Amino acid sequence: MIAPTALFALDTLLTEEEREIRSTVRRVCDREIRPHVAGWFEDGELPARELARTLGSVGVLGMHLDGYGCAGMGAVSYGLACLELEAADSGLRSLVSVQGSLAMYAIWKYGSEEQKQEWLPAMAAGERIGCFGLTEPDFGSDPGGMRATAKREGGDWVLNGTKMWITNGSVSDVAVVWARTDEGVRGFLVPAGTPGLTVNDVKHKISLRASVTSELVLDGVRLPGEAMLPGARGLSGPLGCLNEARFGIVFGSMGAALDCLETAIAYAGDREVFARPLASFQLTQEKLADMALELGKGLLLAVHLGRLKEAGTITPEQVSAGKLNNVREALEIARKCRTLLGASGVTLEYPVIRHSVNLESVLTYEGTSEIHTLVLGKALTGISAFS
């Protein structure tokens, strides 16, 4: 028997440092996450603050950023960390992605030096948590339609509006909120506890239950002028952040798929059907072989995109291709693995159904499959189908 990734000799494409980072994150997940995550999922909770400090202590938060206490690692190292985090649970990778690739990246890329110094070192250490307020109840795929506004009053800004489906919302120390102004869309840092800011957690989720998801309501939130991110003007600001987060999903989704496939292989070897191991049947082996092929192709794509990102040549369309392919294939792998586990596959005794329902959310956020399909369609034809 060989590991599914061995079919593609994936490790030969990685440096020793990248393999060590992957192993370090895996050890943290094995010790701190896997023994508890099924219970967190069942209870609909996540000890986000404790986990943030743990992940900060090993340098995972904002690890692809330079300076301000961040590790400054390469794109492939960050991707491999996302892979291991999502192999434990998509909610955990979401916590890290929102912290590092959305909230921290927005401050790192568009913030003033004072904002960077105030927030980034503590966020890298996991002592402070951030969230990213772009999506609204009526505007997800079309962020240009946002209704949240920020108006000048003297030297201050006054924000009004609602943001929805905000990961880390109620546990955050700062929210990066995007709002429409007379100067176009601008970003603002809204500290927790600011008068007029109300945060309500989303209940009754079936997917991403081991994750904090919230609604942000801004009712006359008054901020000083220096709360605005000076380097971001227009939708290119938040969309640039989303591209960072999508890259992590290209790797992370393959982590969920790998965990499902490894679980299914082990189960099929132990489970006896008609006095034979389930793994001995041709249809079982066909399923496993097909899934291993799609997993391997997705991992090769992820590493290739990581090298392009490190070289500074990656394009948003390439990230869309990676997100579209890898999440779609990961979800198919999770569903197929569930069939191999039979009735056991719908219980939390095994991680497969948890990954499967989580991936339903991953399929939607950071751009739905439909949106990424149209991004590729525009790239191929030169014609936009969005409007």
TrEMBL record:
The GO terms describing molecular function are: fatty-acyl-CoA binding; flavin adenine dinucleotide binding; glutaryl-CoA dehydrogenase activity
All copies of the Acyl-CoA dehydrogenase/oxidase N-terminal domain together span 15-127
Query: Which Pfam families does the annotation name?
Result: Acyl-CoA_dh_1, Acyl-CoA_dh_M, Acyl-CoA_dh_N
- For the keyword Oxidoreductase, the answer is yes
Q: Where is the Acyl-CoA oxidase/dehydrogenase middle domain?
A: 131-221
Q: In what residue span(s) does the Acyl-CoA dehydrogenase/oxidase C-terminal domain sit? A: 233-380
What keywords does the record list, in alphabetical order?
FAD, Flavoprotein, Oxidoreductase, Transit peptide
What this protein needs as a cofactor is: FAD
Entry-linked SUPFAM superfamilies: Acyl-CoA dehydrogenase C-terminal domain-like (SSF47203), Acyl-CoA dehydrogenase NM domain-like (SSF56645)
The record's InterPro entries line, in alphabetical order, gives:
Acyl-CoA_Oxase/DH_mid-dom, Acyl-CoA_Oxase/DH_mid-dom_sf, AcylCo_DH-like_C, AcylCo_DH/oxidase_C, AcylCoA_DH/ox_N, AcylCoA_DH/ox_N_sf, AcylCoA_DH/oxidase_NM_dom_sf, Glutaryl-CoA_DH_mitochondrial
Q: What are the BP-aspect GO terms?
A: fatty acid beta-oxidation using acyl-CoA dehydrogenase; fatty-acyl-CoA biosynthetic process
Which Gene3D superfamilies does the record associate with it? Acyl-CoA dehydrogenase/oxidase, N-terminal domain (1.10.540.10), Butyryl-CoA Dehydrogenase, subunit A, domain 2 (2.40.110.10), Butyryl-CoA Dehydrogenase, subunit A, domain 3 (1.20.140.10)
Task: Give the record's family classification.
Answer: Belongs to the acyl-CoA dehydrogenase family.
Database matches in PANTHER family: GLUTARYL-COA DEHYDROGENASE, MITOCHONDRIAL
This chain's protein is named: Acyl-CoA dehydrogenase
Please name the source species: Nonomuraea deserti
Its lineage opens with: Bacteria, Bacillati, Actinomycetota, Actinomycetes, Streptosporangiales
